[in-house]
């Protein structure tokens, strides 16, 4: 399991009991690589004979796709990978389960997004996966906000090119005229110092609020949403729904 930082990740603590329960001779360990060290680490992992695969978190997902020897259509469409299978000859094969996992584990297979006006805050690796998945759910519209306006615009352009009938635009992070808010930024990993991804004074009870942050479970955003009377969805569901997919992808 790779990330920068690494302390917030839950995947090893969730997947290792699954390995044990199924009698799978494998263990997942958390490893901290910075983006600057990732290329060297990747080269070493390709040569690690007893490595079966990798799960990649922020901010390494785009690099993982670039470094992979092969990628499926989902990862290629998104420009980011979060699960890598290592073959016996050292080839790294990439996919992305973020979007599928988010819809399945957080939004009831996407049913809870249908006919909703969505504001997605964050156009990074996870945000991209969620945005493309939402384009296929039947949500009424999607607004994408990111501190990097060019990144948000690039994502919107790509979705519009692939799904020309879908209503998707860039946006600020104001909450008027939306009824589903999704935080796909790292804001909330460090509750004592992270800014809130939106102005929570604009929250209304008719807005469903979902967060991809898994640890802490109750982020400042979700706490504020609860206080405002919103229905909330925890980020842990996104990972929990991916575990079986990951185990299968690794070939166990």
Give the SSE layout.
Blueprint (H helix, E strand, L loop, with lengths): L1 E2 L7 H11 L9 E2 L2 H12 L6 E3 L5 H7 L2 E2 L1 H6 L4 E4 L5 E4 L2 H8 L11 E5 L3 H10 L6 E5 L3 H14 L5 E3 L9 E4 L24 E4 L8 H8 L4 E2 L2 H5 L2 H7 L3
Parallel strand pairs: 1-2, 4-6, 7-8, 7-10, 8-9, 10-11, 11-12
Antiparallel strand pairs: 3-5, 5-6
Helix pairs in contact: 5-6
Characterization of the model:
The protein has ten helices and twelve strands. The protein is of the alpha/beta class and 252 residues long. The chain has a six-stranded parallel β-sheet, sandwiched between helices. Helix 5 (98-105) packs across helix 6. The two termini are 17 Å apart. 41% of the residues are buried. The mean pLDDT is 95.
Features:
six-stranded parallel beta sheet, 252 residues, globular, four-stranded mixed beta sheet, 12 strands, 35% helix, alpha/beta, single chain
Short précis:
The protein has helices at residues 11-21, 35-46, 61-67, 73-78, 98-105, 125-134, 149-162, 220-227, 236-240, 243-249; strands spanning 2-3, 31-32, 53-55, 70-71, 83-86, 92-95, 117-121, 141-145, 168-170, 180-183, 208-211, 232-233. By secondary structure, the protein is α/β, with parallel strands linked by helices.
């Amino acid at each position: 399991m790779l990330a920068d930082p690494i302390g917030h990740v839950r995947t090893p603590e969730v997947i290792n009991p699954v390995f044990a329960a199924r009698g799978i001779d494998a263990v997942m360990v958390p490893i901290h690589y910075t983006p600057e060290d990732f290329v060297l680490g990747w080269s070493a992992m390709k040569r690690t004979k007893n490595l079966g695969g990798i799960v990649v978190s922020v901010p390494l997902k785009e690099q993982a796709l670039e470094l992979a020897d092969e990628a499926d259509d989902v990862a290629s469409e998104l420009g980011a990978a979060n699960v890598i299978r290592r073959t016996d000859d050292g080839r790294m094969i990439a996919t992305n389960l973020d979007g599928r996992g988010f819809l399945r584990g957080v939004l009831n297979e996407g049913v809870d997004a249908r006919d909703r006006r969505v504001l997605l805050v964050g156009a990074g690796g996870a945000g991209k996966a969620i945005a493309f998945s939402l384009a296929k759910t039947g949500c009424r519209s999607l607004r994408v906000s990111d501190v990097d306006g060019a990144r948000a615009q690039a994502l919107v352009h790509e979705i519009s090119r692939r799904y020309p009938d879908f209503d998707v635009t860039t946006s600020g992070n104001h909450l008027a005229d939306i009824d589903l808010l999704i935080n796909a930024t790292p804001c909330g990993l460090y509750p004592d110092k992270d800014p809130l991804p939106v102005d929570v004074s604009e929250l209304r009870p008719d807005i469903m609020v979902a967060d991809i942050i898994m640890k802490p479970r109750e982020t400042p955003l979700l706490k504020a949403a609860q206080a405002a009377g919103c229905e909330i969805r925890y980020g842990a569901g996104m990972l929990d729904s991916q575990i079986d997919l990951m185990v299968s992808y690794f070939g166990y």
